[in-house]
Design a protein that fits this description.
The protein has about 150 residues and is an all-beta fold. About 0% of the residues lie in helices and about 50% in strands. The chain has strands at about 15-20, 30-35, 45-55, 60-65, 70-80, 85-95, 95-100, 105, 120-125, 135-145. The strands form 2 sheets. Strands 8-7-6-1-10 form a 5-stranded antiparallel beta sheet, with no helix packed on it. Strands 5-4-3-2-9 form a 5-stranded antiparallel beta sheet, with no helix packed on it.
Length: about 150
């Protein structure tokens, strides 16, 4: 419903646990994290900070603050189907976002101006074609920010 409730400038932290029953195939993509208005083309979401997986086991990080768009930064971590993946996103300072996977800080980084507006939680999976039905199961979602 595009309820933009979360302010990255207030120390926004999101922790997510998710699984996929099957591997992400060449015509599927997944994002989990924060963004503005939902768009069927993930790269058209005006502002975002999220984990992304597309056509491979590699888990990527991305952000877009409507000025600087940092796409497809490889974490070198891989998603394994049917096993829970724990992700954490921390907005720690203007322009500083930290990403963690399964408790380990990821060296992959992005540039995000945290004072650019409100965001909402997003967990989206889609497919371009084919008969398979992609799924994402959310095992846990915890979101924190200062008030």
């Amino acid at each position: 419903n595009d309820n933009l409730l979360f302010d990255p400038s207030l120390g926004l932290v999101g922790e997510f646990g998710w699984t996929t029953p099957a591997a992400i195939t060449t015509n599927q993509r997944l994002v989990i994290g924060f963004g503005t208005a939902v768009n069927t083309t993930f790269d058209s979401v005006t502002r975002n900070i999220w984990f992304r997986q597309e056509a491979a086991a590699d888990i990527l990080v991305e952000s877009d603050d409507n000025t600087t768009d940092t796409d497809d930064q490889d974490t070198t971590a891989n998603l394994t189907a049917t096993q829970i993946t724990w992700g954490r996103i921390e907005c720690v300072a203007p322009g500083a976002v930290r990403f963690y996977l399964n408790g380990s800080r990821q060296l992959a980084s992005t540039t995000f101006a945290v004072g650019t507006g409100l965001l909402q939680f997003m967990a989206l999976i889609q497919k371009a074609s084919g008969a398979t039905q992609p799924e994402i199961h959310l095992d846990a979602v915890h979101i924190y920010q200062k008030i």
